């Protein structure tokens, strides 16, 4: 007589796992394909600091970047703001 193992009990199927890239993986792919975005963000930060800003919001910089490129920046996802901010802070701790 066959025995049931825990993995084969009726109704206890494991949920299907949707394997998609993480936000960080998506960010690295986007950044590799669009290295100019990081350089443009660096320039925008430098401009804001040069006129006396003491704080700079990354979401505002994303909107400025989108505004400057009327056709938009395909794939510039708001999910990447924190990752770009961390990268900029790591490269420019001052």
Summarize the structure in words.
By secondary structure, the chain is an all-alpha fold. It has one domain. It is built from four helices and no strands. It has helices at residues 23-33, 35-50, 58-68, 81-91. It is elongated. The termini are far apart.
How would a crystallographer describe the biggest sheet? none
Along the chain, the helix and strand elements come as HHHH
Binned strand content: under 5%
* N-to-C CA distance: 72 Å
User: Could you list the spans in which at least 5 consecutive residues all have pLDDT below 50?
Assistant: none
Concise synopsis of the structure shown:
With 94 residues, this protein is mainly α.
List the helices and strands and how they pair.
Blueprint: H1 23-33, H2 35-50, H3 58-68, H4 81-91
Based on the model shown, name its key terms.
single chain, 94 residues, mainly alpha, 4 helices, 52% helix, elongated
């Amino acid at each position: 007589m066959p025995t049931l193992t825990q993995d084969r009990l009726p109704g206890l199927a494991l949920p299907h796992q949707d394997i998609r890239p993480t936000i960080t993986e998506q960010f690295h792919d986007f950044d590799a394909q669009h290295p100019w975005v990081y350089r443009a963000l660096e320039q925008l930060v430098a401009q804001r600091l040069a006129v006396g800003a003491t704080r700079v919001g990354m979401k505002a910089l994303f909107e400025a970047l989108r505004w400057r490129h009327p056709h938009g920046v395909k794939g510039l996802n708001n999910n990447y703001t924190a990752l770009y901010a961390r990268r900029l802070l790591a490269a420019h701790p001052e």
